[in-house]
């Protein structure tokens, strides 16, 4: 199925990076600020109700989560989450899924071009690149902030103009798999990430561990 693939485009959070613990903490801190400022009501949050926003850009997350929130307040809460996540990465508290780096290394040794594509800020991407030495594995690193947080399928053309086909997209959310609705690419859905049941049903293959990717290619 994946014969002819030369470039593998990988999502980050929920695919390589297990951001569950850090994101839940950051989200709750920001929500506490909104409560204290009188913009939100107290609420007990289930983890799944928070992690469902992982995979969204910050812009899309707030537009869906609290669309009527004042733009200035939304920006402050969003920056609060971003800053906490940044500090976690810079202080060695970010966690990759077991076998993530080994899988990247194995694919690189097989001759694949590896591309990082995440709905994140440049600062977040750079912090994780520094923390894990990601530039040792990735031939190109793209964050949606650099493109005004447009969808990944629109950013794909920028990747295609630089890196050779065929292409494989690997990710845990619909934002990754929907690239195939617009471009001739293969897709691998990561069931261990943050997607909901059925969200990855159109993926060509589903995996339960990032290490399975090395067995497919």
TrEMBL record:
Cited Gene3D superfamilies: HAD superfamily/HAD-like, Putative phosphatase, domain 2
InterPro entries referenced in this protein's UniProt entry, alphabetically: HAD-like_hydrolase_sf, HAD-like_sf, HAD_2, HAD_sf, PGP-like_dom2
Domain of life: Bacteria
Signal sequence segment: none
GO BP: DNA repair
A GO molecular-function annotation: phosphoglycolate phosphatase activity
Transmembrane segments: none
Entry GO terms, CC: cytosol
Pfam families tied to this protein: HAD_2
Name recorded for this polypeptide: Phosphoglycolate phosphatase
